[in-house]
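Priority: medium. Attachment 1 of 2:
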């Protein structure tokens, strides 16, 4: 059973509208046998040392330096709230994003043990120095893809304590939520997967990094961000109904908690951007 078959829309990756970065090339997919990864190449804008992030769809990530004096790399966990994440001095960035559940499947490292603020790649993968140095030495999508594929193959070869069934089920749950893009209740997951709420909670937390409820809310948020980006005239009442929130005020509270803005304020920011303004928070949105 392959993860890609369970993921629904495979390209449903997070949008980060508040990042202060400049794209260096188009985002691309690295297609492994069982899952895809998104590769993003950007430079951090002058005067900024971190990324102002909102919760994504449950993707862990790797960040590598590119063409800098010293090679460095970090592993970042899933963020459950709006927060600035440090980049530890990296200015020229290659970011690798894993679909929910695939990081643990690929590496054997429980997702809930990786903090959102990250830690050094070499602390977990001391044998990966050649990967760090190779990625830092060139600024080539093809070379970066080859090096990352080799790195992931090595991770698989060194992985211990396999629990492939748990990892694939976690990816399946995330894929189900992405396909539905609404608030998914635990009773629904119990009925669908045949396990107790407690078992599913532990399984998703370990393999995705957040609880099923939090994952569902974050997927709803990212779906709303995508819809508002595509159509600023969309009805918030209809959107909250489609996502199965209790009412629009419930949706508004979740949106504000995760982005720092209510939906109406966010739409005004988008409208300002469309009118040619350069609002600090959204002028370099990556999707």
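Attachment 2 of 2:
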């Amino acid at each position: 059973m392959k993860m890609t078959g369970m993921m629904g829309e495979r390209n449903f990756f997070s949008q980060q509208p508040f990042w202060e970065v400049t794209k260096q090339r188009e985002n691309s997919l690295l297609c492994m046998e069982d899952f895809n990864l998104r590769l993003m190449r950007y430079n951090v804008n002058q005067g900024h040392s971190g990324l102002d992030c909102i919760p994504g769809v449950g993707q862990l990530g790797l960040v590598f330096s590119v063409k800098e004096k010293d090679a460095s790399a970090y592993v970042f966990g899933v963020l459950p709230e709006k927060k600035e994440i440090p980049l530890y001095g990296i200015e020229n960035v290659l970011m690798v994003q894993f679909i929910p559940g695939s990081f643990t499947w690929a590496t054997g490292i429980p997702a809930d043990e990786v903090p959102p603020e990250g830690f050094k790649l070499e602390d977990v993968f001391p044998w990966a120095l050649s990967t760090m140095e190779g990625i830092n030495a060139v600024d080539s999508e093809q070379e970066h893809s080859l090096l990352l594929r080799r790195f992931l193959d090595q991770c698989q070869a060194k992985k211990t304590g396999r629990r492939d069934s748990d990892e694939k089920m976690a990816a399946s749950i995330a894929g189900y939520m992405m396909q539905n893009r609404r608030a998914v209740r635990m009773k629904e997951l119990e009925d669908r997967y045949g396990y107790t709420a407690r078992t599913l909670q532990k399984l998703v937390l370990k393999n995705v990094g957040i609880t099923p409820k939090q994952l569902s809310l974050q997927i709803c948020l990212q779906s709303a961000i995508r819809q508002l980006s595509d159509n600023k005239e969309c009805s918030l009442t209809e959107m909250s109904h489609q996502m199965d929130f209790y009412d629009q005020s419930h949706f508004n509270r979740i949106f504000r908690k995760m982005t720092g803005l209510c939906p109406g304020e966010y739409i005004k920011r988008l409208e300002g951007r469309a009118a040619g303004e350069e609002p600090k928070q959204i002028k370099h949105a990556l999707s």
